Amino acid sequence: MSQCSACGVVMPMANLYAKDCIEGLIDAQGKDDLKLALELNEGIVCPTHFQQMDVGEAMSFFSHATAAGLRCYALKSQNEDIVSTAAFVDLIRTWFDLMTRRD
């Protein structure tokens, strides 16, 4: 278990993805006019108790736009860890899309 430095929330699964990559993307987007992961913000990275139960925010976090933003951020910062985090986010979103299909 680890504790978020910004809000103090204990996150038991923080080691599954590189949280620093997501926070770096948020910081990089704050300076740019064009935001690839538009719905990504600090509240999604360090959710409160009630935000942890919100499926809409989870879908915003695990979105293809977030994965694309991470890939662009990886090219800009030349960090290979960010690419693996983008692949993880993309994998979870693809799994979610497959599990919620109504065909």
| Backbone shape | globular
**Total helical segments:** 5
Output the radius of gyration: 14 Å
Secondary structural class: mainly alpha
Mean pLDDT across all amino acids: 78
Terminal CA distance reads 38 Å
User: Which percent range describes the beta-strand content?
Assistant: under 5%
How many extended strands?
Answer: 2
The ordered string of helix (H) and strand (E) elements is EEHHHHH
What is the helix content? Answer: 55-70%
- The main sheet orders its strands as 1-2
Task: Tell me the number of structural domains.
Answer: 1
Q: What's the main sheet like?
A: 2 strands, antiparallel
Oligomeric state of shown chains: single chain
Spans of at least 5 consecutive residues whose pLDDT stays below 50 are 9-16
